[in-house]
């Protein structure tokens, strides 16, 4: 690890309703990005907020569904959700200081398959010596937690230290999102980047550099448990169009298949991805279009 190392990764936040997950994310990001209510979603991984530091980018994920375990099926679903969330780099398990380790907390903690960070929130509601006794109690989950961090999300007490702790567990890597993006539908942006990456890997010469990808539709279809994405691949020469589409549509099909796998992994849900190829002559030489397609600053 060098002096100029950069760290980036996904942090899943789990915990019972009302323990302060949304508050914590808002405190991290320094802006209200997470609503205080939860609504069910087709996506299992929802990006809630992004924290940019000089040496790191932290992407916080919500994990709905973890709280509603009922019966065998419910438990199976939670296990699936746990599996997905543990695809992240770091897991934060948030509990409330004045009511830690309820039945559902235990269930989630016991389902962890790799060490997580235990976050004891709302310490403003209890005395200092009580904090110590909770930390003591957390020892019963031996091996489940690599760190225990008491905080008050609402007062930003201990949250800076928590960020430093999280960064210790992030892999070295590049930025996933531009600095100015803290929560503005980053899933869309990342989906378009996955598609662009495939184009980069599969085409040659100037083509990858002159292709823009924009997401035109991004709709959850709860009845079918999937997300339908319509993306436009924009080339800036007529003859590029045929190359992107390929013989009998083979190239476009391959781009779509590979990108879909990545997007499904990111969202934790099935995706129906539709790609359209459009020509906008010399868009890459026109500043307003570069901006419009999301690549300007
Ligand atoms: P979530 O359901 O886990 O996302 O929880 P929310 O972030 O929506 O918070 C639930 C409630 O707990 C809200 O009324 C918050 O104001 C409150 N809350 C969150 N963090 C703290 C904290 O550190 N101290 C206290 N006293 N209340 C908090
Ligand atoms: Mg919430």
Short structural summary:
The protein is an alpha/beta fold and 297 residues long. It is built from nine helices and nine strands.
SSE layout and pairing:
Elements: E1 7-14, H1 21-29, E2 46-52, E3 56-62, H2 71-85, E4 90-96, H3 103-111, E5 116-121, H4 128-137, E6 145-150, H5 159-168, H6 186-202, E7 211-221, E8 226-235, H7 238-245, H8 250-267, E9 270-279, H9 287-292
Parallel strand pairs: 1-3, 1-4, 4-5, 5-6, 8-9
Antiparallel strand pairs: 2-3, 7-8
Helix pairs in contact: 6-8
The structure holds guanosine-5'-diphosphate (GDP) and magnesium ion.
Write a structural description.
- Helix content is 34%, strand content 24%.
- The chain has 297 residues and is of the alpha/beta class.
- The strands form 2 sheets. Strands 2-3-1-4-5-6 form a 6-stranded mixed β-sheet, sandwiched between helices. Strands 7-8-9 form a 3-stranded mixed β-sheet.
- The two termini are 30 Å apart.
- The model is unreliable at 36-42 (pLDDT under 50).
- It binds guanosine-5'-diphosphate and magnesium ion (MG).
- Residues 15, 17-23, 36, 121-122, 124-125, 152-154 line the site of guanosine-5'-diphosphate (GDP).
Distance between the termini: 30 Å
pLDDT below 50 for ≥5 consecutive residues: which ranges? 36-42
**Shape verdict:** elongated
The H-and-E topology, N to C, reads as EHEEHEHEHEHHEEHHEH
Bound molecules: guanosine-5'-diphosphate, magnesium ion
**Spatial sequence of strands, sheet with the most strands:** 2-3-1-4-5-6
Alpha-beta content class: alpha/beta
| Number of H- or I-type helical stretches | 9
Average pLDDT score: 84
Helix content: 25-40%
Number of strands: 9
Share of residues in strands? 15-25%
Largest sheet properties:
6 strands, mixed
C-alpha Rg, in Å?
Answer: 21 Å
């Amino acid at each position: 690890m060098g002096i100029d190392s950069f760290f980036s990764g996904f942090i899943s936040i789990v915990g019972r309703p009302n323990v302060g997950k949304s508050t914590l994310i808002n405190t991290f990001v320094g802006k209200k990005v997470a609503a205080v209510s939860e609504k069910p979603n087709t996506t299992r991984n929802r990006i809630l907020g992004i924290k940019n530091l000089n040496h790191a980018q932290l992407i916080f994920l919500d994990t709905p569904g973890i709280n509603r375990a009922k019966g065998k099926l419910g438990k199976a679903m939670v296990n699936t959700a746990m599996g997905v969330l543990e695809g992240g780099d770091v897991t934060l398990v948030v509990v409330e200081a004045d009511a830690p380790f309820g039945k559902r907390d235990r269930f989630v903690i016991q389902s962890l398959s790799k060490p997580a960070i235990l976050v004891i929130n709302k310490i403003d509601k209890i005395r200092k010596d009580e904090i110590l006794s909770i930390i003591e109690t957390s020892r019963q989950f031996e091996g489940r937690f690599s760190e225990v961090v008491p905080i008050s999300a609402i007062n930003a007490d201990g949250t800076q230290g928590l960020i430093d702790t999280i960064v210790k567990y992030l892999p070295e890597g590049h930025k996933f999102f531009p600095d100015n993006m803290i929560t503005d539908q980053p899933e869309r942006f990342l989906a378009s980047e996955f598609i662009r990456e495939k184009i980069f890997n599969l085409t040659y010469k100037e083509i990858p550099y002159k292709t823009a990808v924009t997401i035109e539709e991004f709709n959850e279809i709860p009845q079918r448990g999937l997300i339908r994405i319509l993306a436009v691949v924009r080339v800036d020469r007529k003859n590029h169009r045929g190359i992107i589409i390929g013989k009998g549509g083979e190239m476009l099909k391959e781009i779509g298949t590979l990108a879909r796998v990545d997007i499904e992994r990111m969202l934790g849900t099935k995706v129906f991805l539709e790609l359209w190829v459009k020509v906008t002559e010399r868009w890459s030489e026109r500043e307003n279009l570069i901006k419009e397609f999301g690549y300007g600053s």
